[in-house]
Request: fold
Amino acid sequence: MQQTLQDKFSLSGKGLHTGLNLTITFCPAPADHGLKVQRVDLEGSPVIEALAENVIDTSRGTVIGNADLRVSTIEHGLASLMALGIDNCLIQVDGPEFPILDGSARFYVDNILRVGIVRQDAPRRYLTISEPLEYYDEISGSCLRIEPSDHLSIDSTIEFHDSQFVQTQRAAMTDVNDFADEIASARTFVFVREIEPLLQMGLIKGGDLTNALVIYERRMSQQRLDALADTLGVEHRDADHLGYLQQKPLTWENEPARHKLLDILGDLALVGRPIKGHIIAVRPGHKANNKFARLLRAKHCS
Reply:
């Protein structure tokens, strides 16, 4: 049977890209409503369905939008809803993106479990796989494949061959019941070499070391690193000392890989149905994830 929240809940925090203080509210919704996002700060409070074909940008997170609205960084919240079996929910946000919180999905999960989940008087419509289906991107080398299974599981491998700290990592979720304990707390990550151009483009006004793992894996001048530390509001460090800039240790050694798995789940929530299938992903990313979600919808939801 379909499910929704037993009660609404709200979370507040900074937007990763805008730096705005944002509040997001997850509301119960009737059967067959699906997952929808509402911009309550805009005139008329327009609503958009959280579906793969409504994705308009995947360069730094997943963005849905149309002529009336645009909402960024939706993947962590949607991953939590999908993992915990929420079919119907209206998500209200008072700005152009979901708050980044601590860079993971744990606050979403904690609050969904706190308010509770209620079953509805309507059958759940699964996307069920009868034969393998694969998406491959020749340029990025990203590959996502789904094989028949009686439940959802994901095996994901990330590859950063030019980084001595991440390189190749694997993460697996054998059942969505593992999400809350094994995946939800994995934080988003970024390489120091990526931060400078992002700051110049004004894309991470709300980014700091409390909401992302920052990986310093290529030596830069002490002056450049000090300037970056000042921007992020952290202490200066020796430019010869490579590694994670966080003082707080990793939750898991493969935390980046676990976060990429979290992103896969959030992007596949845009299929619009709970999935039964075993997913194998190599070098996943938001663009490839969305292409795969669109392929699944075209093959199984048309």
Q: What stands out?
A: The chain has a mean pLDDT of 90. The domain at 3-125 is CATH 3.30.230.20 (Ribosomal Protein S5; domain 2). The two ends are 22 Å apart (CA to CA).
